[in-house]
Amino acid sequence: MTEPAHRLDLSQGLREAAAEVCRRVPDLQHVDVHRVQFALFYSRKAQRVLTYARCYPLPTQIRRIRKRWYRLTPVLTEAGLEARYILAFAWTRFWTLEPRERLEVLVHELYHISPHFNGEPRKFASGSWHGPGRKWFDRQVRSLTEQHLPTGLEAQFPALTVELQDGLKVKGQRLQVPYWVAITNDAQGAAS
After folding, report:
1. What was the pLDDT predicted at 75?
2. Quick check: pTM over 0.85?
């Protein structure tokens, strides 16, 4: 009987790379990667702006939307913990980048996580996710990457260096975007 082919778990590999990044970068040491879900999504080819990855904050509070109260459906990590964030990577677009660029994209998405690690995005004085602008944010990310992550670090993580090719066996958590569900008045009182 033949052994099943080993599959590289990209979600777990990205989590391991993120753990090392957060350990080394002071501005990211608040991130608990065990409460972040790492997932893959299919990206539409006809997008105007290429998306390599996305950060989905998962707020835990109830929200009032048009006179009704809502909560976000819970998302569990692979360890069974309630996730505070989802970092999702575009299959296969993310893996067309060079390994160092993949590392920088990972830092970019991690930098969107609030310093309070409360399921909200990091917001700057402007109230924006990217501060004064996307170019400014990208400069911050590049600076963090260059200052704290030595060249070659990405080589330690197969999820950042793998070359996608025919016959390669990989797996990963598929992105399931949570949604807002209305809650009853009884549940609202209990949540307050």
Report:
1. 93
2. yes
Other beta carbons within 10 angstroms of residue 131's beta carbon come to 17
Residue 43 has pLDDT above 70, yes or no: yes
Give per-residue burial for 158-167: e unless 16+ CB within 10 Å, then b. ebbbbeeeee
Burial, 168: exposed, middle or buried (Cβ in 10 Å; 0-12, 13-18, 19+)? exposed
Q: What is the DSSP letter of 109?
A: H
Phi, then psi, of 4 in degrees rounded to 5: -65, 145
φ and ψ at 113, to 5 degrees? -80, 130
Query: What's at 159, amino acid-wise?
Result: A
Question: How far apart are alpha carbons 92 and 165 in whole angstroms?
Answer: 11
Strand-strand pairing, 63-65 and 68-72: antiparallel
d(CA 71, CA 159): 33
Q: What is the CA radius of gyration of the chain?
A: 18
Average pLDDT over residues 132-152: 95
